[in-house]
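Need beta-lactamase's 3D structure for a figure. Predict it.
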Amino acid sequence: MEERPTRGHDRALCSWLLLGIALLTLFPGNVGAQTEAPTEPFELEHHLKVGPLDSGAFVVTDVDYFRSNTLVVKMADGTVVIVSSPYENLGTATLMEWIDRALSPVRVVAINTHFHLDGTGGNDVFHQEGVEIWASKLTRDLQITEGPNVLAESLQYFGTPELKDRVLRSHVVPAEHAFPLEDGKVFDFSGESVRVFFPGPAHSPDNVVVYFPGRKLLFGGCMIKPETLGYLRDANIAEWATSARRLRRFDADVVVPGHGKWGGAELIERTIEVAEAAAKSPDE
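Structure prediction for beta-lactamase:
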Protein backbone atom coordinates (compact mmCIF):
# COMPACT_ATOMS: atom_id res chain seq x y z
CA MET A 1 0.00 0.00 0.00
CA GLU A 2 1.26 3.47 -0.89
CA GLU A 3 2.21 5.49 2.16
CA ARG A 4 0.39 8.85 2.20
CA PRO A 5 2.18 11.96 3.58
CA THR A 6 0.97 13.15 6.96
CA ARG A 7 -0.38 16.62 7.75
CA GLY A 8 2.85 17.31 9.62
CA HIS A 9 4.77 16.46 6.46
CA ASP A 10 2.55 18.88 4.48
CA ARG A 11 3.15 21.64 7.03
CA ALA A 12 6.91 21.09 6.92
CA LEU A 13 6.89 21.17 3.12
CA CYS A 14 4.92 24.43 3.13
CA SER A 15 7.38 25.93 5.62
CA TRP A 16 10.32 25.08 3.40
CA LEU A 17 8.53 26.54 0.38
CA LEU A 18 7.78 29.78 2.23
CA LEU A 19 11.39 29.99 3.39
CA GLY A 20 12.57 29.53 -0.19
CA ILE A 21 10.27 32.29 -1.42
CA ALA A 22 11.53 34.62 1.31
CA LEU A 23 15.15 33.96 0.42
CA LEU A 24 14.46 34.59 -3.26
CA THR A 25 12.86 37.90 -2.34
CA LEU A 26 15.86 39.00 -0.29
CA PHE A 27 18.48 37.59 -2.65
CA PRO A 28 17.03 37.56 -6.15
CA GLY A 29 20.14 36.14 -7.85
CA ASN A 30 20.79 36.19 -11.56
CA VAL A 31 17.23 36.66 -12.73
CA GLY A 32 17.33 40.14 -14.28
CA ALA A 33 16.45 43.60 -13.08
CA GLN A 34 12.71 42.96 -12.90
CA THR A 35 12.98 40.33 -10.16
CA GLU A 36 11.12 40.90 -6.90
CA ALA A 37 13.53 42.78 -4.62
CA PRO A 38 13.55 44.15 -1.07
CA THR A 39 11.36 47.20 -0.68
CA GLU A 40 12.45 48.24 2.82
CA PRO A 41 15.89 49.58 3.83
CA PHE A 42 18.28 47.15 5.47
CA GLU A 43 21.82 47.29 6.85
CA LEU A 44 25.03 45.49 5.98
CA GLU A 45 28.17 45.23 8.10
CA HIS A 46 30.32 48.27 8.82
CA HIS A 47 27.35 50.66 8.81
CA LEU A 48 26.41 50.35 5.17
CA LYS A 49 22.69 51.06 4.76
CA VAL A 50 20.92 49.80 1.64
CA GLY A 51 17.91 51.74 0.41
CA PRO A 52 15.95 50.05 -2.42
CA LEU A 53 14.68 52.31 -5.21
CA ASP A 54 12.93 50.29 -7.93
CA SER A 55 13.43 46.60 -8.58
CA GLY A 56 17.14 46.02 -9.02
CA ALA A 57 18.29 49.55 -8.03
CA PHE A 58 19.71 50.41 -4.61
CA VAL A 59 21.40 53.34 -2.86
CA VAL A 60 24.11 52.10 -0.48
CA THR A 61 25.00 54.74 2.14
CA ASP A 62 28.37 54.58 3.90
CA VAL A 63 27.28 55.97 7.27
CA ASP A 64 30.76 56.04 8.81
CA TYR A 65 32.17 58.22 6.03
CA PHE A 66 29.97 61.30 5.63
CA ARG A 67 26.88 59.29 4.63
CA SER A 68 28.39 58.85 1.16
CA ASN A 69 26.05 57.30 -1.40
CA THR A 70 26.87 54.62 -3.96
CA LEU A 71 24.28 53.62 -6.55
CA VAL A 72 23.99 49.93 -7.45
CA VAL A 73 21.80 48.92 -10.39
CA LYS A 74 21.26 45.45 -11.81
CA MET A 75 20.60 45.74 -15.54
CA ALA A 76 18.27 43.48 -17.49
CA ASP A 77 21.19 41.49 -18.96
CA GLY A 78 22.56 40.61 -15.50
CA THR A 79 25.29 43.27 -15.41
CA VAL A 80 25.58 45.22 -12.15
CA VAL A 81 26.57 48.88 -12.51
CA ILE A 82 28.18 50.58 -9.50
CA VAL A 83 28.12 54.38 -9.61
CA SER A 84 30.62 56.11 -7.31
CA SER A 85 32.17 54.14 -4.45
CA PRO A 86 32.40 53.59 -0.72
CA TYR A 87 35.20 55.57 0.89
CA GLU A 88 37.71 52.79 1.56
CA ASN A 89 38.49 49.09 1.21
CA LEU A 90 36.54 47.51 4.06
CA GLY A 91 33.26 49.15 3.12
CA THR A 92 33.83 48.32 -0.54
CA ALA A 93 34.60 44.66 0.24
CA THR A 94 31.36 44.47 2.23
CA LEU A 95 29.46 45.99 -0.69
CA MET A 96 30.99 43.53 -3.17
CA GLU A 97 30.16 40.55 -0.94
CA TRP A 98 26.51 41.64 -0.88
CA ILE A 99 26.41 42.23 -4.64
CA ASP A 100 27.86 38.78 -5.33
CA ARG A 101 25.51 37.07 -2.90
CA ALA A 102 22.29 38.95 -3.59
CA LEU A 103 22.52 40.00 -7.22
CA SER A 104 24.69 37.25 -8.80
CA PRO A 105 26.09 39.55 -11.49
CA VAL A 106 27.34 38.22 -14.82
CA ARG A 107 29.54 41.33 -15.08
CA VAL A 108 30.27 44.31 -12.83
CA VAL A 109 31.02 47.81 -14.14
CA ALA A 110 32.09 50.60 -11.76
CA ILE A 111 31.91 54.27 -12.76
CA ASN A 112 34.10 56.74 -10.84
CA THR A 113 32.20 60.02 -10.54
CA HIS A 114 35.12 62.27 -9.44
CA PHE A 115 38.62 61.88 -8.04
CA HIS A 116 37.83 62.25 -4.32
CA LEU A 117 37.68 59.14 -2.11
CA ASP A 118 33.88 59.07 -2.21
CA GLY A 119 34.15 58.68 -5.99
CA THR A 120 37.15 56.37 -6.33
CA GLY A 121 38.01 54.98 -2.87
CA GLY A 122 36.83 51.46 -3.69
CA ASN A 123 38.98 51.00 -6.79
CA ASP A 124 41.54 48.86 -4.97
CA VAL A 125 38.88 46.28 -4.09
CA PHE A 126 37.13 46.68 -7.44
CA HIS A 127 40.42 45.85 -9.17
CA GLN A 128 41.00 42.80 -6.95
CA GLU A 129 37.47 41.58 -7.69
CA GLY A 130 37.84 41.90 -11.47
CA VAL A 131 35.41 44.80 -11.73
CA GLU A 132 35.57 46.83 -14.96
CA ILE A 133 36.44 50.34 -13.71
CA TRP A 134 35.68 53.45 -15.80
CA ALA A 135 36.50 57.12 -15.22
CA SER A 136 37.10 60.25 -17.22
CA LYS A 137 40.70 60.89 -18.22
CA LEU A 138 40.73 63.96 -15.97
CA THR A 139 39.46 61.95 -12.99
CA ARG A 140 42.16 59.36 -13.55
CA ASP A 141 44.87 62.02 -13.88
CA LEU A 142 43.71 63.91 -10.78
CA GLN A 143 43.52 60.71 -8.76
CA ILE A 144 47.14 59.93 -9.64
CA THR A 145 48.44 63.43 -8.88
CA GLU A 146 46.11 64.51 -6.04
CA GLY A 147 44.78 61.24 -4.64
CA PRO A 148 47.50 60.72 -1.99
CA ASN A 149 47.09 64.31 -0.78
CA VAL A 150 43.30 63.96 -0.57
CA LEU A 151 43.68 60.72 1.38
CA ALA A 152 46.12 62.28 3.86
CA GLU A 153 44.00 65.42 4.29
CA SER A 154 40.83 63.39 4.89
CA LEU A 155 42.25 61.82 8.06
CA GLN A 156 41.63 65.00 10.06
CA TYR A 157 37.86 64.54 9.68
CA PHE A 158 37.62 61.11 11.37
CA GLY A 159 37.03 60.99 15.10
CA THR A 160 38.23 57.46 15.82
CA PRO A 161 41.52 55.64 15.16
CA GLU A 162 39.56 52.76 13.63
CA LEU A 163 38.09 54.93 10.88
CA LYS A 164 41.48 56.51 10.16
CA ASP A 165 43.14 53.10 10.01
CA ARG A 166 40.58 51.84 7.50
CA VAL A 167 41.44 54.74 5.19
CA LEU A 168 45.19 54.25 5.66
CA ARG A 169 44.85 50.59 4.67
CA SER A 170 43.30 51.61 1.34
CA HIS A 171 45.33 52.40 -1.76
CA VAL A 172 44.97 54.87 -4.61
CA VAL A 173 44.16 52.78 -7.70
CA PRO A 174 43.25 54.58 -10.95
CA ALA A 175 40.55 53.29 -13.30
CA GLU A 176 41.74 50.95 -16.04
CA HIS A 177 39.38 52.40 -18.67
CA ALA A 178 39.00 56.12 -19.42
CA PHE A 179 36.97 58.41 -21.68
CA PRO A 180 37.39 62.11 -22.55
CA LEU A 181 35.62 64.20 -19.92
CA GLU A 182 33.83 66.49 -22.37
CA ASP A 183 32.60 63.54 -24.47
CA GLY A 184 31.23 61.53 -21.58
CA LYS A 185 30.40 57.89 -22.13
CA VAL A 186 27.34 55.87 -23.15
CA PHE A 187 27.11 52.23 -22.09
CA ASP A 188 24.72 49.76 -23.69
CA PHE A 189 23.65 46.68 -21.76
CA SER A 190 21.66 44.58 -24.21
CA GLY A 191 19.55 47.58 -25.22
CA GLU A 192 19.44 49.32 -21.83
CA SER A 193 21.62 52.43 -21.94
CA VAL A 194 23.50 54.30 -19.23
CA ARG A 195 24.84 57.80 -19.92
CA VAL A 196 27.81 59.44 -18.19
CA PHE A 197 27.63 63.24 -18.61
CA PHE A 198 29.92 66.12 -17.61
CA PRO A 199 27.74 69.16 -16.81
CA GLY A 200 30.67 71.45 -16.02
CA PRO A 201 32.79 72.14 -12.93
CA ALA A 202 31.04 72.39 -9.57
CA HIS A 203 32.06 70.31 -6.55
CA SER A 204 35.22 69.39 -8.45
CA PRO A 205 36.60 70.07 -11.93
CA ASP A 206 35.84 66.50 -13.03
CA ASN A 207 32.43 65.74 -11.46
CA VAL A 208 30.20 63.69 -13.74
CA VAL A 209 26.61 62.50 -13.37
CA VAL A 210 25.21 59.15 -14.48
CA TYR A 211 21.73 58.82 -15.99
CA PHE A 212 19.61 55.69 -16.45
CA PRO A 213 16.97 56.81 -18.99
CA GLY A 214 14.92 53.62 -18.84
CA ARG A 215 14.46 54.17 -15.12
CA LYS A 216 14.42 58.00 -15.09
CA LEU A 217 17.15 57.71 -12.47
CA LEU A 218 19.97 60.27 -12.13
CA PHE A 219 23.01 59.93 -9.89
CA GLY A 220 23.97 63.57 -9.45
CA GLY A 221 26.81 62.88 -7.03
CA CYS A 222 28.53 65.53 -4.97
CA MET A 223 27.44 68.45 -7.15
CA ILE A 224 23.88 67.94 -5.87
CA LYS A 225 23.82 69.95 -2.63
CA PRO A 226 20.28 71.08 -1.76
CA GLU A 227 21.22 72.59 1.64
CA THR A 228 24.86 73.68 1.66
CA LEU A 229 27.74 73.30 -0.76
CA GLY A 230 29.84 71.62 1.92
CA TYR A 231 33.42 70.58 1.13
CA LEU A 232 34.97 73.18 -1.20
CA ARG A 233 38.63 72.15 -1.56
CA ASP A 234 38.35 71.68 -5.34
CA ALA A 235 35.07 73.49 -5.99
CA ASN A 236 34.22 76.06 -8.63
CA ILE A 237 31.56 78.11 -6.86
CA ALA A 238 31.23 80.63 -9.68
CA GLU A 239 30.27 77.93 -12.20
CA TRP A 240 28.32 75.60 -9.91
CA ALA A 241 24.82 76.95 -10.61
CA THR A 242 25.41 77.02 -14.38
CA SER A 243 26.62 73.42 -14.30
CA ALA A 244 23.62 72.36 -12.22
CA ARG A 245 21.21 73.98 -14.70
CA ARG A 246 22.51 71.62 -17.38
CA LEU A 247 21.02 68.74 -15.40
CA ARG A 248 17.52 69.99 -16.25
CA ARG A 249 17.86 68.18 -19.60
CA PHE A 250 17.37 64.83 -17.84
CA ASP A 251 13.86 63.49 -17.29
CA ALA A 252 14.56 62.28 -13.76
CA ASP A 253 11.99 60.99 -11.30
CA VAL A 254 14.74 60.09 -8.80
CA VAL A 255 17.89 62.14 -8.16
CA VAL A 256 20.57 60.65 -5.92
CA PRO A 257 23.08 63.06 -4.34
CA GLY A 258 26.58 62.10 -3.27
CA HIS A 259 25.59 62.47 0.38
CA GLY A 260 22.32 62.30 2.26
CA LYS A 261 18.75 61.58 1.19
CA TRP A 262 17.71 61.22 -2.41
CA GLY A 263 14.59 62.78 -3.89
CA GLY A 264 13.20 64.12 -7.16
CA ALA A 265 14.16 66.84 -9.61
CA GLU A 266 13.59 69.43 -6.88
CA LEU A 267 17.08 68.57 -5.59
CA ILE A 268 18.52 70.06 -8.78
CA GLU A 269 16.51 73.27 -8.37
CA ARG A 270 17.49 73.64 -4.72
CA THR A 271 21.15 73.06 -5.63
CA ILE A 272 20.94 75.89 -8.19
CA GLU A 273 19.52 78.22 -5.53
CA VAL A 274 22.18 77.29 -2.97
CA ALA A 275 24.98 77.67 -5.52
CA GLU A 276 23.67 81.06 -6.70
CA ALA A 277 23.53 82.30 -3.13
CA ALA A 278 27.04 81.03 -2.43
CA ALA A 279 28.42 82.76 -5.53
CA LYS A 280 27.01 86.07 -4.29
CA SER A 281 28.24 85.64 -0.73
CA PRO A 282 31.74 86.80 0.20
CA ASP A 283 31.72 84.28 3.07
CA GLU A 284 31.74 81.23 0.76
